[in-house]
Design brief:
- The protein is mainly α.
- It has one domain.
- The protein is built from six helices and no strands.
- The longest helix is centred in the middle third of the chain and has 24 residues.
- The model has no long low-confidence stretch (mean pLDDT 92).
């Protein structure tokens, strides 16, 4: 949740889609750059949760907190359904997994995030 709290602090109370895309893109770059080791550890925990019910429960609880935080942000972006927010989060996760596993020097998370938001709104 610390990363998402950082995103909220950077966004501030008033933002538009462009500012959201830029801010989330910077967060993704930070989590796959200087925060790469933490992201790798988090991904390892996710894999372990596949065989550890207690860990899976903790991840579910964290996801519920993230969704509660993200739903008003998503609504401000024109995403009215929880499924749309889940889709956006899945895309962000996929961007990070791919960049950590196979770094692309031309990594452009902002373009992907913007395209997904346009498709979901």
């Amino acid at each position: 949740m610390a990363a998402w709290d950082s995103l909220a602090a950077e966004l501030g109370p008033a933002f538009d889609i462009e500012r959201f895309v830029d801010t989330l893109g910077r967060l993704v770059r930070r989590l796959t750059g200087e925060g790469r080791v933490v992201t790798q550890a988090r991904l390892a925990v996710f894999v372990e949760a596949g065989v550890n019910a207690a860990l899976q429960q903790r991840i579910n609880e964290a996801q519920q907190r993230l969704l509660a935080w993200g739903e008003p942000v998503a609504a401000a972006l024109g995403l009215r359904e929880r499924r749309s927010l889940l889709t956006l989060l899945a895309v962000v996760e996929g961007l990070m997994v791919n960049q950590v596993a196979n770094p692309d020097p031309e990594f452009d998370p902002e373009s992907a995030i913007a395209a997904v938001l346009r498709g979901l709104a």
